[in-house]
Amino acid sequence: MTSATTALPTAVQNEEGLPPVVSQGPALLAGIGHGPGLHAHRDRIGPAPRLGAQELVELAREVDLRGRGGAGFPSAIKLASAARRRAVVVVNASEGEPASHKDVALMTCAPHVVLDGAAAVAHALGTREVHVVVPSELPSLRRIVEQALRERAIAGERLRVRLHDAAPRFVAGQAQAVLQLLAGRENLPVTARAPEAVSGHRGRPTLLSNAETFAHLGHLARVGAAGYAVHGTADEPGTTLLTLRGDGWDPEVREVAFGTPLTEVLAQDELTRPLLLGGYHGTWLRPGQLPGLTVSRKGIAAAGASIGAGVMLPLAQGWCPLVRTAALVDYLAGQSAGRCGPCRNGLPAMAEALQDLVHRGGPVARVEELCGLVRGRGACAHPDGTARLVASMLTRFPEEVDSHSLGTCRSGQPGMFG
Amino acid sequence: MSEHQLRVDWPACTAHGLCAELLPEVVSLDEWGYPIVDGSVTSEVLALAKSAVKACPTVALRLIPSPPRPQ
């Protein structure tokens, strides 16, 4: 296999101002060495697939394809629900999470892999209405998508696409917030009355998934279930995209097969440090849990965590996981849309209680109380995700919590997480 | 026995607190005055729940029938 490594355009940057490195992958990222153009894409993989709704649903069911936005919802169920009259297709390429870059990386390096998926889904659902949501803070990505759409139009592969610019905030990529954006309202979450596959954009059945999910659907439609299962395990066929150290100094986007051991994903010294898995709404794991784990929804769920949208954040050398969590909750509190009372009041209170615990030996009971108070009490998953992060800190690092309660921090001492 | 669930439209709720006044059996208030819904609405308190839904100044409450219990 030839290897290709590419750095994203400099406009695609994380908070440290560094573009993630994207490596060639086995399926979705297999062609990035040939550039993002349509000609190279068609030369490599042939024409875009055209299947009926039933065929596509069956394929998705056969390989148990799950959405890659974080919740892991079965794509077959979503497709089957949306396969009704006047369906709408929405490709969400706006990652609100600052530590996730995989959708932007995929859209930048392989736009036609995503657009083939969108075209396949639109064809299967019998619709021509496709919306693509891009992050407004990356105008370069919008230009890449526009260029890709022009190439398709010239080649006679017209896909009627409307582009939308998502607001640069954590909750803007949430499904209901995206539907608000499409409707011309403020890009913020509202209470869902029904799943969007049943009643979404303008009350119509709406297949809203993130860019990676569409890429998998397109790939699956092209190669079939057996071809899709060339990678991965019998239980979890296929590949998934990961963002490693997405908010750190050397961010990286990789496509790996399900079943890949974490020892092949993380560097040796990263395996000796705590890992935040699933992003800022994710779950901490202790280093002792890492060597036995593989990239697997089920295996990671069995360890009490979730792979989420594939974000892996090893704790930086010498950092305390409590100090890091407190800083993240400060950020997350600031990212509340401020619409739901328990989130608007509860997250800043939680941030304060955590700072109090971590830096001044404040009571852990107050942190636990606030976790309980924000859970399930908002229009979107922001309060729940923040509570999950904090709860996992309390569960995984009880000794560290104890020492902070006594006003000391043991971080940086060798072997402390063993 | 049919039960109902009380659902809060969180962006709509502005913490008037009438629901907790009218239906203390199910609703209490958090430290900021927002409702904490604890448990289902049984048939005994269904009439009270309906009046709480009607009384909400921001129309932020909804009563929905509970799904059948899994056996």
Topology overview:
The complex is a heterodimer of chains A (418) and B (71).
Chain A: E1 5-7, E2 21-23, H1 38-45, H2 53-62, H3 75-82, E3 88-92, H4 102-109, H5 111-125, E4 130-135, H6 139-154, E5 161-166, H7 175-182, E6 206-210, H8 211-228, E7 239-244, E8 252-257, H9 262-265, E9 275-277, E10 283-285, H10 297-302, E11 311-314, H11 321-334, H12 341-360, H13 364-374, H14 382-396, H15 398-405
Parallel strand pairs in A: 2-8, 3-4, 3-6, 4-5, 7-11
Antiparallel strand pairs in A: 1-2, 7-8, 9-10, 9-11
Chain B: E1 4-8, H1 18-22, E2 27-29, E3 35-37, H2 46-55, E4 61-65
Radius of gyration of chain B: 12 Å
SSE arrangement of chain B, N to C = EHEEHE
- Known CATH architecture of chain B: 2-Layer Sandwich
Q: So what's the overall shape of chain A?
A: globular
For the residues shown, what is the average pLDDT of chain B? 91
**Helix-residue proportion of chain B:** 10-25%
The low-pLDDT segments of chain A are: 13-17
**Can you identify the CATH class of chain B?**
Alpha Beta
Strand ordering within the main sheet of chain A? 1-2-8-7-11-9-10
Secondary-structure class of chain B? alpha+beta
Query: How many strands, what sense, and barrel or not for the largest sheet of chain A?
Result: 7 strands, mixed
* CATH superfamily grouping of the largest domain in chain A: NADH-ubiquinone oxidoreductase 51kDa subunit
Number of beta strands of chain A = 11
Q: Approximately what portion of the residues of chain A adopt beta-strand conformation?
A: 5-15%
Give the oligomer, counting copies of the same chain as homo and different chains as hetero.
Answer: heterodimer
CATH fold descriptor of chain B: Alpha-Beta Plaits
Rg calc of chain A: 21 Å
Individual helix count of chain B: 2
Overall domain count of chain A = 2
Sheet with most strands: strand arrangement of chain B? 1-4
What does this structure look like?
The complex is a heterodimer of chains A (about 425) and B (about 70). Chain A is an alpha/beta fold and about 425 residues long. Chain A has helices at about 40-45, 55-60, 75-80, 100-110, 110-125, 140-155, 175-180, 210-230, 260-265, 295-300, 320-335, 340-360, 365-375, 380-395, 400-405; strands spanning about 5, 20-25, 90, 130-135, 160-165, 205-210, 240-245, 250-255, 275, 285, 310-315. Chain A folds into two domains: about 20-230, NADH-ubiquinone oxidoreductase 51kDa subunit (Rossmann fold, 3-Layer(aba) Sandwich); about 260-418, NADH-ubiquinone oxidoreductase 51kDa subunit, iron-sulphur binding domain (de novo design (two linked rop proteins)), CATH 1.20.1440. Chain A is built from 15 helices and eleven strands. In chain A, the strands form two sheets. In chain A, strands 1-2-8-7-11-9-10 form a seven-stranded mixed beta sheet. Chain B has about 70 residues and is an alpha+beta fold. Chain B has one domain: Alpha-Beta Plaits (2-Layer Sandwich). Chain B contains two helices and four strands; from the N terminus they run βαββαβ. Chain B has a two-stranded antiparallel ribbon with strand order 1-4. Chain B has a two-stranded antiparallel ribbon with strand order 2-3. Chain B is globular. The mean pLDDT of chain B is about 90. Classes of the chains: A alpha/beta (about 425), B alpha+beta (about 70). The interface between A and B is medium-sized, with 14 and 14 residues.
